[in-house]
Amino acid sequence: MGINYGRVGNNLPSPSQSVERIQLMRARRVKLYDADPEILKLLSRTQVQVSIMVQNQEIPGVASSQALADKWVRNNVLPYYPRTMIRFILVGNEVLSYNSTDRDRQLWGDLVPAMRRIKSSLRSNRIRNIKVGTPMAMDVVESTFPPSSGRFRSDVAESVIMPLVRFLNSTRSYFFLDVYPYFPWSRNPGDISLDFALFRGNFNYTDPATGLTYTNLLDQMLDSLIFAMERLGYSNVPLLIAETGWPNSGDIDEPGANINNAATYNRNLIKKMMAEPPAGTPARPGVVIPTFIFSLYDENQKAGPGTERHWGLLHANGDAVYEIDLTEKRPASTYGPLPLPTNNRPYKGKLWCVARIDANVTDLGSALSSACRVNGMCDILMPGRECHEPASTFRHASYAFSAYWARFRSRGATCYFDGLAEQTVGDPSRGSCKFPSVTL
């Protein structure tokens, strides 16, 4: 078992403290989202296998020039290898999930050429035991149910995925997959059993096309990708789970994000992946699937809904969010009790988005000005209008946050505002000043 070490936070322990914690947790592998020199030097003193990353913005240059690929390897691999046990180089992160601009789509075409150049540079330096891959999200597959229906998106199947799996097959590398059962379950908690998502074994179904029986959602998702690769003629490319996990907290409108479910998912995940003999999946029984849990820490500066900031096994101060053993040697009976889950069903009712009590007033003022640039959004806050009094930055920002979120939530807006806002079920309206709300 490995662990993802992300650092999108302003309150995280130092790299040296973090490497110590990774060792204390007895993680066999660690995955970085860059090739940070300080961390790579610290890891040289350990027996932890390391995955490093060519970041998305670096891909076009590497794809277009072998000299730039050689420079990347010279700067990010050769000073540390083999003392630091670099085992994987990942080119980009979920590249095919970005599709909003022409530049995003241009990156798709650069992906496999960049991987080839990195591999060529490794060979020229006589490095044979570093695998090159790229992590994909589950959105590269059009369908996961039933697993036998799995097929890649039509916009990338021939142009990107075919050359990708051909490269992975020829270099004996892995298809790296970010796979989160939490997301399909939380979108359809009435249709998907929580026990099925958490490996609790109280539900199963049989794929009518293959006769294979599934006892958990992770296997279903993994096998849908296996069948998608088989449709392209590649049935032997092994899988590696680059990210998986379960959020330990989240916003009010995010069901199931709690410590109880997070601990249950990750403990059962480790039990499955560390089983002897290997469990594999129904389509590939008995196969080892290397797995990286996401993530080491809660990361307080990640944008988006609340779950984005709450995937950690550790709090930012280094304390465990819940007890876990990455080696699967600790008996389950020795774990202490977990807090009872309180939000396993979707919230029904009204929500408002208000300023956090601990938010900096100057930052609130800047966010207020930004939200109020939308025409008419904040007219009601003007002197003499219903929501001008009390004329406090906190109160006005809360109104602006609620109004903006209510208007643009359907377009992806979240109640975050750079960490200045939070959801509430308590109506902040006063008298004739009615705050806009979201109804679930």
TrEMBL record:
GO terms, biological process: carbohydrate metabolic process
One GO MF term: glucan endo-1,3-beta-D-glucosidase activity
UniProt keyword terms in alphabetical order: Disulfide bond, Glycosidase, Hydrolase, Signal
GO cellular component, one term: plasma membrane
X8 domain mapped to chain residues: 351-435
EC nos: 3.2.1.39
A family per Pfam: Glyco_hydro_17
Annotated catalysed reactions: Hydrolysis of (1->3)-beta-D-glucosidic linkages in (1->3)-beta-D-glucans
EC category: hydrolase
Listed PROSITE patterns: GLYCOSYL_HYDROL_F17 (PS00587)
N-terminal signal peptide: none
UniProt keyword Transport, yes or no: no
Family: Belongs to the glycosyl hydrolase 17 family.
Record-given protein name: glucan endo-1,3-beta-D-glucosidase
